[in-house]
Structure formats: C-alpha cells, structure tokens
Amino acid sequence: MSSHDKMFLAGILTFGLLAAPALAFDFGRPATPAEIKLWDIDVGPDGKGLPDGSGTAVQGRQIFADNCAACHGDNGQGGIKDRLAGGQGTLASNMPVKTVGSFWPYATTLFDYIHRAMPYPTPGSLSTDETYAVTAYILSLNGIVPADGKVDKESLPKIRMPNRDGFVPQPEFDPAKLFRRK
Amino acid sequence: MTSKTSSERLPRSADVSRRGFVGGLSAGLLGVAASEVARAETLADVPDRAPGADLGAHSERSRFARLDRIPEATPGKRNIDPSDAINSKTPHQKLVGNITPTDLHYERSHSGVPDIDPAQHRLLVHGMVRKPLVFSVEDLKRMPSVTRIVFIECTGNGWENWKKADPDLTVQNTHGLVSTNEWTGVPLKFLIDLVAKDKGSTWMLAEGGDGAGVDRSIPLTDEIVNEAFVAYGQNGEPLRPAHGFPMRLVMPGFEGNLNIKWLRRLKFGNAPWMTRWETARYTQLLANGKARQFQLRMETNSVITQPSGMMQIQPGYNRISGLAWSGHGKIAKVEISTDGARTWKQAQLAQPVLSKAQVRFQMDWDWDGKPTRIVSRSTDEQGNAQPDRQTFIAAMGTNALFHYNAQQTWSIDEAGRVRNVLA
Predict the structure, then answer these.
(1) What is the ipTM of this complex?
(2) What is the mean predicted confidence (pLDDT) over B9-13?
(3) How is chain A split into domains, by residue range?
(4) Where does the record place the region Disordered (chain A) (predicted)?
(5) Which residues of B touch A173 (CB under 8 A)?
(6) Are the beta carbons of B290 and A7 separated by less than 8 Å?
(7) How confident is the model over B96-131, as pLDDT tens digits?
(8) CATH number of A54-158
(9) Superfamily in which the B103-284 domain is placed by CATH
(10) How big is the A-B interface in CB pairs under 8 Å?
(11) In whole angstroms, what separates CA A152 from the centre of its chain?
C-alpha cells in the first residue's frame, strides 16, 4: 500500500465513509495554465505576481480624481471611506490614524488591493498601467515616492514602507517560526 | 364565545405588578412583547381553537415573534442606513439554546452579497500542487463530507466597548457578531490529497468571489488541515447568499474573516501573502503603536444574554442565561458573579458541549432588589480563562479594535434597569 493510499484509508476511517478509493481521483477537472493565469491575481511582498507595466504619480493624479476621490477625498483625505494619506506618528496615541502611509507595511499590498477590489463599484476596471499609476500617486501623497515618481514590478517590492517594522506576529502563528521544524 | 384579538382587551390595573414581573424576564425573550404574555388572564380568556392557515411550501415565524438582525457599521455607528452597514448582528437577547437560526446568523460582508449562480461558480485549487484542479459545486457535493456545529465570530465582536461603554447598548450591539450553525462540506484534507499538494507548501491563500475578492493567508498547521472544510450546507440547506453561497471555507475556532465566503480559489504556497486584510485591516494596534499580526484564533469568551442591556428585571427569582465559546476547544466551565465580580458561582451548561461551538449556560438567581452588577467568565478545556477588563486592557490597550474578549458586565439599578458598563 502506498503512503497516499494509506492516507486515503485514514481519511475513510476518520470520516466513516465507504467510498471506493478509485473514485477519489475522478473529482473535478484539470485546470489549464491559460485559465489559471486569468485568476492568479495575488501579489506577494517579494513582488511575485506583479504584472509587466508601469505608472507614474503624475498619471495617477487624474485617474485618482476620476475613480477614487469621490469616496477617499481629494488627496486621499476627508472622504467618506478610508483615509489613505497622513497619520504618521499617531499609532501610539489615543486616536490612531491608520493610512497607507502610516500603517501599511508593504507597497505590493497596495497594488494587489487596488487591482482586486477597487474602485468599489467596478473592481478590476483599471488597467495594469492605471493601477500602477494610482499606486504611485497614493504613495506620493504620503511622501513615499516623489511627486514625479514611477512604479513597476521591479521598484514596488523595493519600497520600504514607513511602518514596515510595525507588526509583531502572534507567537502561535509567527510565519518566521511556525514551520521551521518541517 | 368569540375569540378576542389583542386590541379588544386592555390590561386591568390588578395585572400590572404581575405583568411587570413576567414582562421583565421575557420582554426580549423570543421577541414576545410583554403585553402579549399577560392578555389571557384566566383560561376563559384564551381564544377558542379554530382551523388555521393553509399549509405552505415553507413555514414562517409567528407574527408575534419579532426577530431581526441589526445592520451596523464601526463602533458607535449604529442606527445607520443599511447601504452603509458593514455587518449585521444576531439578536442574542431574543434567542435560546445553542444554535443560531440561519437567517439570524451574523454577517460581515466586505462588498455586499453577490448573487451567484452555482452552475457558473468554480473553485480553482492550484499553486504548489502536482495537479491543479477546477471543481464545480456538484463536484464538491459528490465528495465525502463532514458535518460539524461550530461558532463563527467576527474579530470585531465586542468592539463597542474598547474605549467606553454606551449605556443604551443591548447584547446584540455588544456581542452580535458571533453565531453557531451546523455546516456541511468537504474536508480541506480531501482536496489537498486530490491536487497532490507539495509537502513544502505550508501556507494557503483562500480567496472569495465577492467584489472585494477578500483573501487571507492560512497556515497549514495539523489542526487546520484536519479541521477546515469547504462548506456548501448550512443547518441542513444550501448556504444562504449572505454566508457564502454556493461554497465557503469553514475554519473552526479561527477569525470569522478566514472563513472565506463565495470561495473561488485556494492557492498553495510557502509564505503568507500579506494581503490587505492581514496587514492593514485585521491586525490589532497595541498601546505602544505596534500591531499584533496573525492573531488568528478566537479567544475564550462568554456573555450573559438574559438579563442583558436595556432589559428590566424585578426583585426575586431571575434566571441568568448566556452563551460561552472558545476557539481553543470545549468550554469547561462558566462562572457567574451577581455582586460585581466579588464572588462567583458555577453555572449549568446545556448539553452537548461541543468543541469550538457556543454553549448555553444558566443559573438561578434571587435578586434582593439592591443595585448590583452581573458578569460571566468562561474557562475552556485547555485552561484558558476569559480575562477581566482591567487585565485585558492592560495587555491590549484600547486601540486594538479587534479580538475583544474581556468579561462583559451589566449593571442593574434599584429599578431593575440593566445597562452596559465597562466593569
């Protein structure tokens, strides 16, 4: 009996089932590389998953005004939804202001989030270059990239966010230690 | 004798004191108003029997039982327009037993409730696997299944009381973001075997099919691999859209937002993705300005639901009842203090006590009519005890926003009015 068969048998015993093991491999269908690419949108902190393309803060200013300012306010402040700029130095106060500039630890997360979830009424409607541009603009509002700055898949993971060291993992699920022995 | 409608009969003055007593205990219970309770003063007043309504395709609640969730936003933002709501809270003050009615299960949705045709829904499982696969809902339903009763709790549960205690809050306002249902689905382990996951994969990204594409990194600990499942059933029926129809991840004992709704992708990797929700959102800001991250497990908790905020009780016999739960396992005991946390008595637990599920507790109490405070504290089978507020705030500060599990105190004044207080 192979180890995989043993695992499956253990599964049968665990869940009290009588399915024939041979059927176990008939579920679902293979995913093709082309369709995986359509859905594989996540971006890691190392930049893995960032697409080709680029955008500048100057381009982003107009795209932000057209697509984002209605909720987030001009310059990413004073809107009806999350504030995106400012707040540095407030995290230990009684009124912390959590923004991209004061709180977010990774610039890659900003691209990922805009790409998957924004603008709220039409998520995914911005092009790759527009997404880079809005990312650059929001970072520029926080003084993290210059007002004439540009970001792409090479530069974004290299940006060191002001609050990069502001997070302390819960010991039980600390990614640096959790699977060390395995 | 003709049957009387409630509007035809006014309460007599002699009824008042008894109505006060009965009404006090049951004003909220099951949503039955006090005036309805005392209308049949003698058996002769009980309406005659008669043929009832036609049988229907499904049954509805009695028109006398009013049970509603409340859509709310962030702490202090209550009584809002539903279009501004980010969650909807369970009316624990009106419920009994251990299981939350399906339509009253709390909800937190990050981009509304998508209207998904199950025939067009797909789950992609890929990444560090030998065989990336696509599954339909029907595929999942053909697989071996598990059924389990578990609580799901939003990490924001209790967040109204971090900085202050508004006195006009009900237990629905303070603790309405936790519920317990029976869920049915396919063990995660079964899917892991089907795609032949690489042994080097230690983290999994789970992503929803909602507008926000909510995604969380999940560590593949033995506990999670053995207990997580992809659910398509809720209390015996397909999931409700608000709860992830046609499929969601269920992560017993872990943060509600890890139980990804409208699940459409599982990707295996070897490090967390640092998504917006696990960095900017569901992390807990401590007093020193650092944020606690990957605090994934929900803590040992309890709350008295009867009597609770905005109810009124009478001196004499009162039955205290509430709910306790822990993401660590089973509740071992619940203690109740009726003298402001000076002395404690052990409450009775309703059976069965299940791991990572809410359990009902109760205790008899003879109130002497003097102002006091009542509070519950739970301990789970691993010895984790629910902290008092002072100890809890000393450790977490008041800015954390999420993972509030301090003991909930209700004050009772000389008139029997029950109000939310910090301790």
Answers:
(1) 0.89
(2) 37
(3) 3-30, 54-158
(4) 157-182
(5) 219, 221, 294-297
(6) no
(7) 999 999 999 999 999 999 999 999 999 999 999 999
(8) 1.10.760.10
(9) Oxidoreductase, molybdopterin-binding domain (3.90.420.10)
(10) 161
(11) 15
